[in-house]
Amino acid sequence: MRALRAELIKLVSLPSGWVALIAGLVIPTGICVITSLTSQPGPDTGFSELAIGVLGAIVLGVVAIGSEYTTEGEESAGGRQITTTLTAIPSRTRLMIVKIITVMIVVAALAIVAVLLAHTTVHLLLGSQAPDIDGETLARAGGAVAYWVMMALLGFGLTVLTRNGIVPMAVLVANSSAVTVTFLLAQNFPVANYLPDLAGMRMFTTLHTSVEINPVAGGFIMAAWVAAMLVAAGIVFVRRDA
Known about the structure:
The chain is mostly helical. The protein has helices at residues 2-13, 15-38, 48-53, 55-66, 81-88, 92-126, 135-162, 166-174, 181-186, 196-201, 215-239. The longest helix is centred in the middle third of the chain and has 35 residues, at 92-126. The chain is globular. The chain starts with a helix and ends with a helix.
């Protein structure tokens, strides 16, 4: 518990961690304001905006481990933090698990607040035209939270493999725009529907592509990608020099 508490404090005290937390709340809420005022409401109103707002979650997953390898800037404390961290927690497997749990806790909390803000905004602006809050809405909200957590873990795993936050940021953040690269690929290559982000989006949004995947299957497909990524990252993290 002491290690988990220390990692939680470390993550939420990073300047880039604060930027990610703010971005995770401001971006989806701001997009909800724009879409509510400029477009016709539909069943995905309040949810499709969360697919773009996931940027904050990705950044949190990346900086949770990327900051350990930074040698410049305010977060480096004048050197690579990973040496100090491994002195405090010598077991690399334990450190990896603690960091994964840390990312899951912080991102899940961020996602829950983001979902509440998004739907509160939609209901304040649209009134009776806003989607009803029922069992299906709550299930989709849970899917959105799971999607944010798994996208953060993908960013975390990629950063462990590369020991650099630039590549994961370039790949995952660039792909989380209004029209994702994987969505465009899926228009011509059906196999792209099974990529983690596109499969995971089925948990809370409606996607019309050449392959129909139900929300539960989409969640399992994304979870399998995340599990494979974390296993590979864990093996590399344990065997590679710090």
